Automatic annotation (TrEMBL):
CDD domains: cinA. Belongs to the CinA family. Pfam families: CinA, CinA_KH, MoCF_biosynth. SUPFAM superfamilies: CinA-like, Molybdenum cofactor biosynthesis proteins. HAMAP family: CinA_B. Residues 4-170 form the MoaB/Mog domain. InterPro entries: CinA, CinA-like_C, CinA_C, CinA_KH, Competence-induced_CinA, MoaB/Mog-like_dom_sf, MoaB/Mog_dom. SMART domains: MoCF_biosynth. This is Putative competence-damage inducible protein.
Amino acid sequence: MKAEILAVGTEILLGNIVNTNAHYISNRLAELGIEVYHQSVVGDNAERLKEAYELAFSRADLVITTGGLGPTKDDLTKEVAFDYFGKEAVLHEESLKSIENFFNTINISMDKSNIKQAYFPKDAIIMNNSVGTAPGCIIQEKDKILAVLPGPPREMKAMFEECLIPYLKKFQQGVLESKTLRIIGIGESKVASMIEDIIDNSVNPTVAPYAKEGEVTLRITAKAKDPEEANELISPVEKEIRDRLGEAVYGEGEVSIEEVVGKLLVENKFTIAIAESCTGGLLSGTLINYPGISEVFKEGFITYTNEAKIKRLKVKKEVLEKYGAVSSQTAAEMAEGAAKASGTDIALSTTGIAGPGGGSDEKPVGLVFVGLYIKGEVKTKEFNLIGDRQRIRNATVIRTLEWLRREILKCLGK
């Protein structure tokens, strides 16, 4: 079965809201082995909506719509669909009672306009809305299926799980299982070249790279009769990829770099302090996203000025005068100073030029130095980054945490 997801709503086209429904539905359909080949968005316009139905059904067996089921005149999803299939809508008494009960429960009188939401063709399968007013429906016409769902994500998810999933399961033929590997420290083009033959020869499972800010993900997807068989297909491909990419594979699934680093610190009881200049607290805040980090995170210093670096971290005045605030020497003294002030096993420091101004030929915008104090040893690293101020700060955080991850593994002999 080929599926298409059609989101209805001018507010999505204008960018006023993000279409998270398509992401959710695609993931759930993949678990059923139903492949989504297209996703579309159309505004609240009857003519364009009808064209969208015609296009969707010309290339899909199943079309799932979200949105446009409200009581107002511009909510047209059902009405245009019924016209497309040549079906007359009549009042569905059970749906009307359900809508009335909803309003009674919240002690609000129902407006007459809500009656519109209870009209459906006689042969439609009605999907009850357990958390809102708008019922949905399923129309099956020959070999085509239309499923109409509400737009609010909470209502859509409830109806999808409670009503549409049980209906679709009778069409289920196998499953699609995916495993995502997260890679950092290697760019997308480099990853693709290192596993080019695997990608080119992948049929089942398939392997696809996706670039994200500061990292790359590889999705391995297998189609099989059940999850166990799919995982058996995925396993050898995953092993080959891990063997080639080595420690650049930092995790899998939805894990983040701060989760991986936070877990390493907590499990090994490595205490840490962070001293920041150009990142202005962003590095500390990112690491603190990890629950339980309070067991090892001792202090964070935002030493933006030279005076603060001298006073809080004991950076030598002559080092700042000779090498400048943006230098490997200053980064080293910041890291060591933070570790000694906090009494920690590990300390990180960041100092750089995030822009947009302040750069020079010798020290351009995007030049960042990071310091690391780990078990009595001080190391530094230089980054040359591009982008606007926020992108440079974000990239500094990601690369710094990745460097720390590798150094901790090295310290542990892994």
